[in-house]
Amino acid sequence: MVKKSKVKLVLKIILWILIVIILIPVIGFFILCFIDPNPYRPNKIDNPNGYVQAVGTNLYDGEGNILRLEGVNLGDWFVQEAWMASATVGDYDTSLYTQKRALEAMADNPNLTAEQIDAVEKLYIDNFITEDDFKTIADLGMNTVRINFSYLNITTDGETIKENGFEKLDWAIEMCNKYNLYCVVDLHGAIGSQNQDIHSGDDSQWALYTTPEYREKTINLWKTIATHFKDEKIIAGYDLLNEPRRAPGKYAGKINFDYYDELYEAVRSVDPNHMIFMECFTFPIHGVNPRTYGWENVCYEYHIYNQTTLSQETTLYFYKALHNLMDYDVPVYIGEFNAWDDLGDWQATLDFFEKLGWSYSSWTYKTNKYMYNIIPANKTRGSWGIFELNLEPVDLSTATYEEIVNTYSQVGTENAEPSYLYSFYKNYFANRK
Q: Which of 119, 120, 244, 340 is most buried, judging by how many CB atoms fall within 10 Å of its CB?
């Protein structure tokens, strides 16, 4: 009997230890969900420098007033993505569109000359986003656009700047100034690819971090970009790398942040004023504390796409808890997010960001729903765009010049339907004023 009692006692002790081991992190996580990560929000700072700044856990405009970036991405403009593009490069399942593959397909297309390839690329970019789109975004009540581009848009080889490489970006900055929209300059695709994802423009490799030539070219590219834009105060900051991965299919980590440090130093060597965005992809725990590198005037960025069975509210609190856990002590920018087809979730998401003082840009302004309705892997629970085209794509590998021109002439927003997000945003900002 004594022996059995001792066994029971040991089992009880083990059980209680297990309960404590389980309960402590659960309780801790629950507490982290409800701690305000941004409790101190001075409305104004002294000695503003004319640029958007990260001070403590808040952003401030050029005059020193507290600021939140509230806007939208201009996805699919400079960098088309297979699941919402207006072009293909063959069969949907075997040859998904990427920016690099599209250029190669057109170069191999006997129907096209080099001059015609340049012409249709320009036609698409000129038509997809026009001045009216910047006006529409401002009229909705937003104050920010995140402009996504790759090295293929402004260089010939990752190093040599095209003759008119900055022309359209300069025009976009001009439009931002005209319509009082801040701009986030986002390098969506670096030389060698920072993630091997379609949206980097090159899914054929993951070579940026492991290839010295690519690392150096991207460093020099950011020096060139920062030198070109260093006096543009409407630019809220530089988003150095979109959704970096530490390996194909693996979320970001120290390898990405160590390279961020090299890019940070390169930018700061020519531009000491603009804020810099560092992406923790995809969760806050996939970053490194900025104090490790001695960074200043930086904002950490997360992307929130809840494609799990968890509720949107649970997902938001999950990000908040992880952010609190990491104690980065910097402002937060949700550079991309979607709340799918539940308008209640959209309202709750924007209210959540506002309560925490977090900035955001939804993904995205305009899509081609024709594509994400026919590619099974990319079917969604709701709209990806504020506006939606429904345009049958053109095959760049076989089409004639006239056929490409016909399709690319139809990508303007005047040919798109406003989704439910258009009314939602219009009402959201109108009711908040």
A: 244
Task: Report pLDDT for 34.
Answer: 82
Q: pLDDT tens-digit profile of 17-38? A: 655 556 556 565 667 888 899 9
63: its two tokens:
């005059």
- The domain of 12 spans 1-34
Does 68 reside within a domain?
yes
Percent of the chain with pLDDT over 70: 90
User: What does DSSP assign to residue 162?
Assistant: P
The CATH number given to whatever domain includes residue 401 is 3.20.20.80
Long-range contacts, stretch 87-90, CB < 8 angstroms, 24+ apart: 87/393, 87/394, 87/395, 87/396, 87/404, 87/407, 88/393, 88/394, 88/395, 88/396, 89/395, 89/396, 89/397, 90/395, 90/397
Structure tokens at 94: 């075997």
**In a shared domain, residues 24 and 50:** no
Dihedral, 234, 301, 66, 327 alpha carbons, nearest 10: -150
Nearest by Cα to 252 from 265, 239, 241, 264 = 241
Q: Which two tokens mark 97?
A: 């569109």
Report the first-to-last Cα separation within the chain, whole angstroms.
75
